[in-house]
Amino acid sequence: MRTKLWIFIAIVALCGVVSAEDAEQLQWENRADIPESYRWNIADILADEAAFDATVAEVESMLTELTAYQGRLGESADVLADALDLFNEIQRKGEDAVVWASQRQHTDTRDQAANATLAKARSFAGKVGEAASFIAPEIAAIPDDTLAAFMKDERMATFEHVIDDITRTKEHIRSAEVEQVLASSSLLRGSPNQTYSDLTNADIVWPKIIGSDGEETTATPSLFYSFLSDDDRRLRKDAALAIFGTFDSYGNTFASTLGGSIQKDIWVARTRGYGSSLEAALDADNVPRIVPDAMVEAVHANLEAIHRYVALRKQVLDLEDFHIYDLYVPMVEGTSMEVTYEQAAEILLKALKPLGKDYVKIIEEGLDLENGWIDLYPSVGKEPGAFSASVYGRKPYIKMNYLNSGNDLATLA
Fold first, then answer.
1. Which regions of 119-240 does DSSP assign to beta strands (E)?
2. CA dihedral 63, 65, 70, 75 (to 10 degrees)
3. What is the pLDDT of residues 368-394, one digit of tens each?
4. What is the DSSP secondary structure assignment for residue 70, as one 8-state letter?
């Protein structure tokens, strides 16, 4: 949050506040009604379902070739490099299939065809993981001096980080048999999160509330911050109660999915010999335990400042009581910033000029909606939030739920 705030402040300082233009439709009931220019173009990855099936079939045929290397990785640097080259190619092609299916489903979780394809993609990814599960334990079993000699081969330079990561975590790498079981459990381990996503984004019918303009609107999680930054306290309260109340009505189910996710993390951590699921999660990215501990300590040490800030908000907003729906509305009237996407793109290009023409040229290409990098507006069934998905050798895919706010500008940045 602090990073996004500083980015936003820097952009505004560089470019100035931009006034709003004529409003356009931002929230859509059906994705099919959204103009194509506002949707990302995943056809640049795979053209259609037939291309997805063909890619999956091609990669699955390559898995037999990969498993032929099982038991041989310690033979020579050439054999190890050949196996890793093949696995890289499998991952590259397989990523196309998985990302294509995922991006298609993220934008409309109610689309049964997209859900079915994503299920196939996840099953396919599990097969790839199982087939490749022998690689890490075999590399971890290669004697240090032998592996060091292998790494002098110029072909192995590409895989230096991969090898370093395996040797760093070798005490938590299990036998090939156990690694295969862990890989084959990927679908089971993903079940709690998938259940949560399906329930939240596809099955729940979110309630209607009356907007500040007197018109009926749907209170969905993707609109949460838009509602809670509105000057109309009645609207903020109605939106918060509608969204939180709906979550609460499914409380037992959400508690069950959370419990399943926690148990999954504990099982994986114990299976790999970690002291806790936190330790396992941090070790995956080589993050020292001191990092989250320092963050928690810093928060606890500064709680008084947060309490003072909330008290100041209550005083400035002249409220008798204070609730979560009072946390995001501007404290000073007239400071709300409405930024259309076109204005946001202009601001970002100006702000990023110091990084050079080459950098700005790439950003300009991405911000041009005709190029299909960005899926811009929220719609019923689209997952809330935002992300940028990187696909090797392809353009990034940026999911937004853009609602013409300063926060959306900061998120895009």
1. 208-210, 216-218
2. -140
3. 999 999 999 998 888 888 999 888 888
4. T
Tokens describing residue 200 = 């939240």
Q: Which residues contact 349 (CB under 8 A, 6 or more apart)?
A: 360, 363, 364, 367
State the Cα–Cα distance between residues 165 and 276, nearest whole angstrom.
20
| pLDDT at res. 10 | 40
Return the bridge partners of 387, or none: 399
DSSP tally for the chain: helices H, then strands E:
18, 5
pLDDT digits (tens, 9 = 90+) for 45-89: 999 999 999 999 999 999 999 999 999 999 999 999 999 999 999
**C-alpha pair distances (Å), 200 with each of 226, 227, 248:** 18, 18, 12
Distance linking the first and last C-alpha atoms of the chain: 13
Dist. CA 231–CA 235, nearest whole Å: 8
Burial string for 332-367 (b: 16+ CB within 10 Å, else e) reads: eeeeebbbbbebbbebbeebbeeeeeeebeebeebb
Angle between helices 233-249 and 251-271 (to 10 degrees): 60
Report CA-CA distances (Å) from 233 to 26, 82, 215, 227, 330.
22, 63, 16, 9, 12
Q: Where are the beta strands (DSSP E) in 140-296?
A: 208-210, 216-218
**What kind and span of H or E run contains 310?**
helix 303-316
Q: Which of 38, 19, 103, 28 shows the shortest CA–CA distance to 367?
A: 38
